[in-house]
Amino acid sequence: MARYFITGIAGFIGSSLARALLASGHEVRGVDNLSCSDSSNLSDILSDIDFCQMDINETDRLCDFMRGVDFVLHEAALASVPRSINDPMSSHTANATGTLSVLMAAQTAGVSRVVYAASSSAYGDQEAHPKHESMCPAPLSPYAVQKLAGENYVKSFWAVHGLEGVCLRYFNVFGPGQAADSPYSGVIARFITDMLAGEQSTIFGDGFQSRDFTYVANVVSANLLACQAPREAVAGEVFNVGTGRSQTLNTLYATLARILDFQAAPTYKKMRAGDVFQSQADISRARSALGYSPTHTFEQGLEETVSWY
Ligand code: UD1
């Protein structure tokens, strides 16, 4: 039994992690400022976790609440490329400054390891595919810059303070509990809720942009492995967490329309600023260092997600 601390625990990734850890008999503590998530995500587990509504930038309070834990899983973020373009400062405060605050709290509290939710957006658009961790980052949006800054803070706390930090670059995570009610929601949640409401969805661009859509159970498994792996293999390192395959938006739309028996075609609008064109993970490094292997394909994840709505 280990003690885990989750930032952003009311978000859909944070709450999925909490559920999996409780099921394995671990102790779970966590914080969320509930600015873009709903405590209803925690209703089934609230009595089994130690939860406090708190912003991650309240470093001293965070540190006090963190004392005694073994692992910190840092999921709290304002996760959206367009949001970071519309309001870069609040996005920076949550994503970059917030990560610094979590690391400072973890170091002072004597935590042994922090696993950080990094982002595939760090790669930007590059000629080579799939994206490998050895490629030089080329962030296109403020969001990508902020998430990359977080990675560099994690690496520097390992180098300077010996705080074990592991960066997991998530590739477009989706699954049950993902918010769908905001213009900043992930595309899968948006398309499913549009189709269920009988409304037309919008595709930004020509729909030929691709993503390595990764079911949340794969991300949960990568986090648990990142906590268990030997320090020499993972501290200060970056790992892609995806499936190793990608789908275009047009294929995603067609697959969901088939599953939900939805007839209407999407509306096409101008491509979004800061949008990456192609995104697919090379997961060989995570396979060899973490023993990671996707537990769910894109299609399996989609079936599970649709049946949740
Ligand atoms: C990016 C990151 C991802 C991160 C996420 C956080 C990349 C490759 N991925 O995701 O790792 O978790 O930010 O928010 O940078 N779209 C539509 N219609 C819609 C909504 C979106 O066509 O209604 C399009 C977008 O323009 C984009 C794709 O769908 O091309 C995916 O969008 P979204 O789900 O918002 O994620 P990314 O911005 O790709």
UniProtKB/TrEMBL annotation:
Q: Which UniProt keywords apply?
A: Isomerase
Which protein is depicted?
UDP-glucose 4-epimerase
- Isomerase as a keyword of this entry, yes or no, is yes
A Pfam family annotated for this UniProt entry: Epimerase
Q: Which GO terms describe its molecular function?
A: UDP-glucose 4-epimerase activity
Q: Which organism is it from?
A: Granulicella mallensis (strain ATCC BAA-1857 / DSM 23137 / MP5ACTX8)
Indicate yes or no for the key word Cell cycle.
Answer: no
EC number(s) on file: 5.1.3.2
